[in-house]
Amino acid sequence: MKVFHVLNHFLPQQIAGTEVYVRALVKCLMEAATVEEVKVVIPNYGSNKNNYYVYDGIPVIQYAEPSIADRLLIMDKRKPDGLDSFVNLLNSEKPAIVHFHEMAGSNGVSYHHVTAAKNSGAKVLMTFHLAANTCRTGTLLYKEKDFCNGVIDEHKCTACHLHSAGYGNLTPFLLPLSVFLYKMKIDTTNWDSRAGTALGGVFTTHLFQERFNTLVQHCDKVVVLTAWYKDVLLANGVPAGKIIYIPQALPYDAKPVITGTYKNGHSVKLVFLGRISPFKGLHLLIDALRFFSEEEISLDIYGQAQDKVYEEQCRHQTKEKKNIHWKGVLSQAEVVPALMQYDALCLCSTLSEMSPLVIQEAFAAGIPVIASNVYGNAEQIVHDQNGLLFRFKDVGSLKDQLERCLRDPFLLPGLRQNIKAPHAFMETANAYYALYKSLLN
After folding, report:
1. Which residue blocks in 319-410 are alpha helix, DSSP H?
2. Across residues 409-432, what is the average pLDDT?
3. 126-141: per-residue pLDDT in tens?
4. Which DSSP letter does residue 423 get?
5. Which CA distances in Å does 242 have to 1, 23, 125, 407, 433?
6. What is the pLDDT of residues 22-32, one digit of tens each?
7. Which of 336, 335, 363, 367 is closest to 423 using CA atoms?
8. Rounded to a whole number, what is the distance in angstroms from the first to the last CA of the chain?
9. What is the pLDDT of residue 265?
10. H or E segment at 387?
11. Residue 374 and residue 393: Cα distance in Å, rounded?
């Protein structure tokens, strides 16, 4: 059995949740010797040659992808130049299974590659690590404000995308005009202008839905990490028999340390760990700490900037605060031991993440999580049992939960008692291996 794991980037060039997950899965499959041959496949951006390297014992193939990301490619008016190289790779290597982990527009891995894999005769599956396959903004928030059910709808999704693209008050005027042009089959996305893109909003939403349907059609199975996203796929018409649920696990070795003996005094030590990005909501936590004295609550911040301007703003807000410390970036091996030094982790997501890994890391360290009440967080955290939930984007609601921690010295220790250790990733790998075998049989 030869298995390809296909994604847009891999270690060490990019370190993010999907890359770490794939690395763990491949290592487990290799160490258990359940799969005879397993390789990671990614585009070799900007090059007309294939490249090969080994990372942590994992063979990686970079297929030639010289495409320039111009408007025609972004709008799916032409296929990526590297698609032929990908097809040639499939024909020469002949993998039994091609396992996709992410989709992208432009010159990344796309539904064209899924179709090619299916046409090669391989069994094809896709693991959904992000909600972006059913949400044009990737947030599952309607106009950045209300929760969305994730069902692709030409009117609703177009209105939301126009809003997120900065059209704001123009959306009520642009949407009906876009609907009219769509019904008249006038595709303004062919215009090389911002106006053409806006007026072609319904066209692009229709294309988005077609891409999703093509993806699902050409996959033998699709894997979800969460129960809530399974419901989203079902609502979008994906057959129940095609969906496999393999829950999130901690994708690296970390000995879980579950303790319940710690008792707070008159202060709370918080930790933030994650990308320094508006999506992670660090600004909400900084804002909430204004309501407490420096002696009552302290905060250590770990993470790498994804948005330099945003990071500078957060640093400026905290530069006079003696209780807020910027601690830099932790290596993977340092994460769980570092988290064990705190009373709770705070995760202020401003969108619905699929299944944040940092929650599993906090549970491995034996500390509860105070998080915004969005889909990905709420599936792992039970309010007042193993953590606390507050209304997303609501500083006042976050302040109330922090105040509870401060005023009730038994709250956080009680939550620690109910924390369960994360699943071992070998369980995840075994579930995938069983799936591979069922596909081939």
Report:
1. 332-339, 357-365, 375-378, 395-407
2. 93
3. 999 988 889 998 888 8
4. P
5. 22, 25, 10, 49, 16
6. 999 999 999 88
7. 363
8. 12
9. 56
10. strand 387-390
11. 10
DSSP class of residue 394? -
Give the E-state strand segments of 21-157 in sequence order. 37-45, 51-55, 58-65, 97-100, 123-128, 141-142, 146-147
pLDDT at 257: 54
Q: Which residues partner with 300 through β-bridges?
A: 271, 325
Contact 294, 265 (CB under 8 A): no
Tokens matching residue 29: 């499959």
Q: What is the rounded CA–CA span in Å between residue 222 and residue 205?
A: 22
Contact yes or no for 173/193 (Cβ under 8 A): no
Listed residue (100, 356, 352, 95) closest to 223, CA to CA? 100
Reported as a single tens digit per residue, the pLDDT across 371-393 is 999 999 999 999 999 999 999 99
Strand order in the sheet with 387-390: 324-328, 297-302, 268-273, 344-347, 369-372, 387-390
pLDDT reported for residue 260:
44
15: which residues sit within 8 A by CB, 6+ positions away? none
pLDDT digits (tens, 9 = 90+) for 257-296: 555 444 455 689 999 999 899 999 999 999 999 999 999 9
- Are 258 and 290 spatial neighbours (Cβ–Cβ below 8 Å)? no
Q: Which two tokens stand for residue 167?
A: 């059209």
**274: left (phi > 0), else alpha (psi -120 to 50), else beta?**
left
pLDDT at residue 262 in the model? 47
Q: Sheet containing 2-6: which strands, arranged edge to edge?
A: 51-55, 58-65, 37-45, 2-6, 97-100, 123-128, 221-224, 243-245
pLDDT of residue 229: 96
Reading the block at residue 78, the tokens are 């032409």
Say what percent of the chain tops pLDDT 70.
97
All domains of the chain in start order, with CATH: 2-129+219-249+425-440 (3.40.50.2000), 141-206 (no CATH), 268-417 (3.40.50.2000)
